Design the sequence.
């Protein structure tokens, strides 16, 4: 058999692809090497000019950045709609995975719970590297606004810069 050399450069296929199998608000991620479905997400724009993540579920390949890939995908969707990356989710324990409430995952990404005191509880668990108790973890609306995150980072940067000015 004769070798065929394409005039086009070889393209690397990513190991994870997100696709929309039905043309609706339902998205799946699959592993291009194994062909296995990694997870699913239902996300759609709202009248409040943000993206609501109705469901985000990773099946087996957890703690490998797959959930973050879905959130990045939703954030880009928000930007494409002109919503500046704003998203929200109702974080709650899923029947498919009752022992791993997602609140810490969303908080580490930059989501804020609607109740300030709940932010402190989640942050305390993150600091101690502890999981939330699934029996006492309520469903909580959590919001992501990239402008608030940038503002907070700028404030921290300015504080550090001011310390060095004093020295």
Sequence:
């Amino acid at each position: 058999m004769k070798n065929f050399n394409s005039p086009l450069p070889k393209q690397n296929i990513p190991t994870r692809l997100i696709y929309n199998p039905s043309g609706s608000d339902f998205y799946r991620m699959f592993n291009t090497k194994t062909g296995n479905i990694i997870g699913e997400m239902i996300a759609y724009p709202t009248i409040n000019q943000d993206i609501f993540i109705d469901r985000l579920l990773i099946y087996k390949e957890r703690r490998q950045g797959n959930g973050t890939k879905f959130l990045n995908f939703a954030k880009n969707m928000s930007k494409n709609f002109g919503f500046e990356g704003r998203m929200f989710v109702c974080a709650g324990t899923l029947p498919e995975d009752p022992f791993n409430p997602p609140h810490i995952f969303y908080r580490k990404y930059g989501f804020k719970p609607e109740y300030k005191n709940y932010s402190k509880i989640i942050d305390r668990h993150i600091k101690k590297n502890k999981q939330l108790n699934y029996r006492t973890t309520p469903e909580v609306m959590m919001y992501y606004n990239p402008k608030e995150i940038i503002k907070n980072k700028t404030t921290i940067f300015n504080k550090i810069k001011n310390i060095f000015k004093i020295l």
Remarks:
- Strands lie at 16-19, 26-31, 37-45, 51-58, 87-91, 112-113, 140-144.
- Helices lie at 66-80, 103-109, 116-127, 146-166.
- DSSP finds four helices and seven strands in the chain.
